[in-house]
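ABC-2 type transport system ATP-binding protein
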Amino acid sequence: MIEIKNLSMAYYEKPILKDINLKLDRGKIYGLFGRNGVGKTTLLKILSNQIVSYKGKISYEGEKITENRKSLEHICYVSSDDNLGYFQNYSLNNLLKNNAMLYVNFDLDYALKLLTEEFNINPYRKYKQLSKGNKVIFNLIVGLAANCDFTIFDEPSSGLDAINRTKFYKVFSEVFDNENKTAIIATHIIDEIEHYITDILILKKAEIVFNDTIENFEEKSFIITSDTESVPNLNIIGEESLGSMKIYYVYDEVSEDIKREFTTSGFKISKLDLQKFFIEMVEAKENKDEK
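C-alpha cells:
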C-alpha cells in the first residue's frame, strides 16, 4: 500500500497540491483526472520519488519512500515524455536491459516479445530514431514488463494512434488483472479507461475533491430531466436548461423505489457517464465557486 498523509506543495507560494490524504491499495486500478496544470503529474512524480521537496509524508508498505531506496524497485513511473537525454542514443534492447537492472521483477523476455511481436518494433533501433508514437509505446512496454507493485501511467495514450491505443489497453488489462498489482492512470481521455478502472480520483485546485470506487459511482450517479419547475431534493452537482427542459446531474444514494417514484412524478432518469460527471464536478463547481 502507498499512503499519502497531509501532502502539500507550493511553487513560488502558489499551491500545487494542498493537504492531500490518500491510501492506494494493492490490486486496484485508479483513474486520476483533472484539468491541465492542476498538479496531476506533480503528484505522480512525488509518488514515484522523482520529486522530494514537499510537505507531508509518502510511505510504501509503512516506510517513507524518501528513506527507503528499495521502494523504487517496486514503483514504476511511465510518461509519454520522450526526452531520455543521453540514453536516447541507446538501442531499445540495451535500454530494456538497463530497466531490468532497475526493477527487480522486470521481465525482459516479455518486454522483447511485446516490442517485436505486438508492436512490430526493431529492438536494435536507437531510441532517438523512433517516431513520437513508437517512443511512447516503448515507454509503455517498460511499465507493462516492470512487474512492479505500483505502476504509474501519465497520459499513456498521448501520441498513439487508435490501433496502438487499443493494443496497449488490451495488454494492460491482461497485465493488471492481478490482485497484487496496482496501476494509476492519469489521462484526459476519460471514456477510454472508464471500463478498466476500479477507483476514481479527481484533482481540482490542488485538492482531491472526489475519491470513490467505480461501483459506487455507477450506483449513485444519474441524470434527471424534467419539464416542470420542481427541483428534486437530491445532491445535485450540476444543472442545465434546454428550452423548457431542466437537466439535473446527480450524485446521491437513492434506492430503486425512490427512482421509480421520480419516474411516476414526471421525471426521466438516465445514465450519467464518467466524462460528463467529471466536467460537472470540476467545471460547473468552479463556476459556482467564482460567483
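DSSP finds nine helices and 14 strands in the chain.
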